[in-house]
């Protein structure tokens, strides 16, 4: 950890959470020394992390929350977690969509943020299994009178299917619709990312729908904030090597960056004080059609 008392609260809490997960628990007095902040500041940070449901406060410190591998939070609950990190990720990821391309967006709060940044990309064809993502495009502000069509006007296809707690549509109907389509880029949200388990989700039907999305995409861009690292949910649906680019935020530790970069063709870290490892740009992106 960095001994920097000028860290922003969000960055400091990300460091604390990383330490809790890595070590299985931390003590308040250790954090005050490592972060060079007051006891009260550390306790406020632990209170904030406990309210987010990512740590459990114990006497003198905190431990990770033991989350069931089948637990799937609702969309609103997930929206409240790491909003700044998601915006950083979304801004960087959306720049990977070329005007006039066919793109897909899976369900999730980070892909929802990506969708908002895509509104100004012209002539997109958007396929999504997310009710929330579809609403972003359908509810976009109308153009000013006499101003012509909105520059980012998109054709949106909503797959249909059975709705999950996070407002994704999954199951045979979604799978069949996706299987008949082909995308230039897929923006994929995940519940968990790890070297051993790859990408995972607590929902078995969503795992199969995500596999269909990946198979239909020429380029796969995973968007995942630092709290997803090391999480393993019930069902794995892809290896890290199947991902072309993973976009995360500056809250991820250097150790995790190094470990993931060994398995990913492209790892992009977005946000303040971000590093960059093996980022894939337009000239060197891996294309699934062999071109």
Automatic annotation (TrEMBL):
Q: Which PROSITE patterns match?
A: HTH_DEOR_1 (PS00894), HTH_DEOR_2 (PS51000)
Domain HTH deoR-type stretches:
9-64
Whether Transcription counts among this entry's keywords is yes
Superkingdom field: Bacteria
Per UniProt, the keywords (alphabetical) are: DNA-binding, Transcription, Transcription regulation
Keyword Nucleotidyltransferase among UniProt keywords: no
Identify the Gene3D superfamilies for this entry.
Answer: 3.40.50.1360, Winged helix-like DNA-binding domain superfamily/Winged helix DNA-binding domain
- What does the record give under GO molecular function? DNA binding; DNA-binding transcription factor activity
Could you tell me which PANTHER family the record lists for this protein? AGA OPERON TRANSCRIPTIONAL REPRESSOR-RELATED (PTHR30363:SF44), HTH-TYPE TRANSCRIPTIONAL REGULATOR SRLR-RELATED (PTHR30363)
In Swiss-Prot or TrEMBL terms, this protein is called: DeoR family transcriptional regulator
């Amino acid at each position: 950890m960095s001994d920097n008392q000028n860290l922003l609260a969000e960055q400091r809490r990300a460091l604390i959470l990383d330490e809790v997960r890595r070590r299985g628990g931390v003590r308040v007095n250790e954090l005050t020394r490592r972060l060079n902040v007051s006891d009260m500041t550390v306790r406020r940070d632990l209170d904030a992390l406990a309210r987010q449901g990512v740590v459990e406060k114990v006497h003198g410190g905190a431990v990770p929350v033991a989350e069931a591998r089948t637990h799937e939070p609702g969309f609103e609950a997930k929206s409240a977690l790491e909003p700044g990190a998601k915006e950083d990720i979304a801004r960087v990821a959306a720049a990977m969509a070329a005007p006039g391309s066919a793109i897909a967006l899976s369900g999730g709060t980070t892909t929802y943020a990506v969708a908002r940044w895509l509104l100004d990309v012209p002539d997109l064809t958007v396929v999504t299994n997310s009710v929330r993502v579809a609403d972003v495009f359908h509810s976009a502000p109308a153009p000013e009178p006499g101003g012509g069509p909105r520059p980012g006007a998109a054709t949106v296809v909503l797959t249909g299917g059975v709705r999950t707690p996070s407002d994704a549509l999954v199951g045979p109907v979604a799978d069949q619709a996706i299987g008949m389509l082909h995308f230039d880029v897929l923006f994929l949200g995940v519940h968990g990312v790890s070297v051993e388990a790859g990408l995972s989700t607590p929902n078995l039907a969503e795992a199969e729908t995500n596999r269909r999305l990946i198979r239909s995409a020429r380029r796969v861009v995973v968007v995942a904030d630092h709290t997803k690292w090391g999480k393993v949910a019930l069902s794995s649906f892809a290896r890290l090597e199947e991902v072309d680019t993973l976009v995360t935020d500056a809250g991820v530790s250097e150790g995790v960056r190094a470990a993931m970069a060994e398995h990913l063709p492209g790892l992009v870290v977005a946000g303040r004080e971000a590093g960059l490892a093996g980022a894939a740009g337009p000239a060197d992106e891996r294309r699934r059609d062999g071109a």
